[in-house]
Amino acid sequence: MKLSNNSPPVLSTNSILYIDSKGKLHRLYCPFKAVVTIDASPLKRGDIVTIEAVKVTSEWIDIYIVENRGYYYYCFRITL
Questions:
Q1: DSSP letters of 17-67?
Q2: How far is CA 68 from CA 19, 24, 39, in A?
Q3: pLDDT for the residue 12
Q4: What is the CA radius of gyration of the chain?
Q5: In this structure, is the dihedral angle defined by the CA atoms of residues 25, 31, 34 and 39, taken in order, positive or negative?
Q6: Distance CA 64, CA 71 (A)
Q7: Domain layout of the chain by residue ranges
Q8: Which residues pair with 56 in a beta bridge?
């Protein structure tokens, strides 16, 4: 996985953007909690983890940093 250093200004290593059920855009700052949705060693499905930072690959895929290790965003469900 190659991380990109050419992020647009709206991207940040300490937050993500999300849209709520009313269509409003919000920024969620790290650290934030998430539930592991698929086993991603050493994380197990159902574990509650803290997302410490957010990175982006050169293909613009979000990577969440947990305990200094990178995991694809789709391994998690964010808990608000």
A1: EEE-TTS-EEEEESSEEEEE-S-BTTB-TT-EEEE-EEEEBTT--EEEEET
A2: 27, 31, 17
A3: 73
A4: 13
A5: positive
A6: 5
A7: 15-78
A8: 62
Q: Tens digit of pLDDT per residue, the chain (80 long)? A: 555 555 555 667 899 988 899 999 999 999 999 999 999 999 999 999 999 999 999 898 999 999 999 999 999 999 88
Matching residue, tokens 């953007």? 17
Contact status, residue 7 vs residue 59, Cβ threshold 8 Å: no
Phi, psi of 75 (to 5 degrees): -85, 0
Cα angle 32, 30, 65 (rounded to 5 degrees) comes to: 85
CA-CA distances (angstroms) from residue 43 to 20, 37, 78, 80? 27, 10, 15, 20
